[in-house]
Request: fold
Amino acid sequence: MPWYTDFFTELPNTFWRAAVPIESTTAEIDFLMKLPGDHVLDVACGSGRHALELAARGRRVTGVDVSAEAVAHATDAARERGLSAEFLVGDMRALPVTTADTAICMGNAFGYLDHDQTRAFLAGLDVGTLVLDYGFAAESFLPGVALEEEPLTIGGVTAEQINEYDVARSRWITHFTFTRGEEVHRGTSVQHVYTAAEVGRMVTEAGFGTIEMYADPDGAPYELRSARLILVARR
Reply:
């Protein structure tokens, strides 16, 4: 069973819900709103950070995530705000919805699957535009990588991390311990590391003809040591 199927329970989800400043979300939504089309498919939507704001700005949004807790949280938030966004529990390996004007995969979920599964995921998308937000591109991640990380407390949850790098398979493996009072959740995440060129080749293989690579939502070009890769592909 893939690591992510039982990793994202309430404790880690609470940590990540509080981790991203609203200013970062606003900048990302501003970027996404420049893309054409009405219907957005948010793959690995988490607790709805992007989907809810896109819906608030008038997009028709379908969010899919493997975490039932995150989907329930997003659904409740949409109801409370009077938004029409739809949220579904589903795995990236077998999405319940594959057709939309635009598909987005934000927050590093692109690296969760192994190589063959990633190719199948991309090939299965019936969309005109694809956006991948990927912090584990080799040009971003490897130049400054350090195995040791200090514990972080965000949203009342403390996350401790023990990291290792699998050279033979280009995988970043993190053993997490989340705590809040007496509550404890342990899980291990696996991120597959690709070069930007490898990501581009997989996207092209999936039928996308035009690819743009940015370093951040303001449109700066992607370069060596950029903090993240935002790839926009069009049919």
